[in-house]
Amino acid sequence: MAELLAGLGTSHVPSIAAALDKGLRDSDEWKPFFDGYVPAQDWVAGHKPDIAVVIFNDHGNSFFLDRVPTLALGVADEYRPADEGWGPRPVPNFIGAADFAWHLADRMVEGHFDPLICRELDVDHGMQVPMELVFGRPDAWPVKVVPILVNTIQYPIPTPQRMWDLGRLLREAIASYPTDEKILVMGTGGLSHQLQGARAGFINPQADREWIAKIGADPARYRAMSREDYVEEFGSEGAELIMWLVMRGCMDADVRTLHQHYFAPASMTGAGMVLLENMR
Amino acid sequence: MTSPDRIPDTPLFDRPRANAGYALNKMAMGLSSPEGRAAFLADEDAYLDRFALTPDQRAAVKARDWAEMVRLGGNLFYILKISAVDPTPIREIGAAQAGMDLQEFLDTRLGKVTNG
Predict the structure, then answer these.
(1) Is the confidence at residue A253, as pLDDT, over 80?
(2) ipTM greater than cut 0.85
(3) Is residue B115 part of a domain?
(4) How many domains does chain A contain in total?
(5) Is B31 domain-assigned?
(6) Residue limits of the Extradiol ring-cleavage dioxygenase class III enzyme subunit B domain (chain A) (predicted)?
């Protein structure tokens, strides 16, 4: 059966992409942020995952408000970077792990999750940035991908508990997949930020650091919180953090935190990552 | 048009806002294609005519009044595309909504200390 190699939670802030595109990786402003990812990059490179399942939200690029899938699953052979208004970014196309994606589609529907199944899909910074943070900017990505897109923009968005349950299902789908491929599950979004309204610019570094510290060892509180609790504690767009629960939910109760990093502010956002491994 | 929000100054994009802002957000979504961006830059009024904006929404777009666009149902992820044809840093959009100048916004919200 396939193996869950590790779970990784990370920000997907578009300013990270802009910084890379402008050659600011080693600038005074950005170097501490990017340097904090190096140990996790090295760990992943050394463990050679075959597939990355990336859970993220579209930001009004793949889907408009005419139809809003609460959950969408990519089963395509290839995904192109989306045009978010500035033209598609110069990152390689992503090769889809279509076989595993269809297996996951089967398991999801049988498990009473009913995603929009996407055969043709451009992917925005929600997927691009995590891939770049983990794998750099290669000529070709070293893993195949399975995108899972969650609506976190238009209410009602799914509940934190639902995200956790999706993680449990993903765990079963990995365990029942009859190959020996190694799968990296990436929950993305956050950390605290708010782009809308008079509270724009809200960040909460203390809550972010607590999240980074506890998402591995003690995630129970974050499952039980309401969506409104997330908005209050992490900001209106900080509620994206619910997608880390898919990653955490697919892991064992006992995990080891291999690497963690936090930096604020990245543009208008608390940013960082955590890399988790099941205790074995 | 806005529903009461439990969290102050935090407009969740719910049914009333999604309804009120649909045309405004659709206009902005049109800027995610090269053709839409070219049309906006060539003749902004003619581009806006394609969409059923209210007079208030149209005025807010023309004035690049970000707080007003959000108040009228605009969602940042869509209206941000206006900043792709009329470059505006995201932090300035944040400051405008907070009702602050940029430096005050950076200092009080983001704890940002700029050099020099």
Answers:
(1) yes
(2) yes
(3) no
(4) 1
(5) yes
(6) 8-274
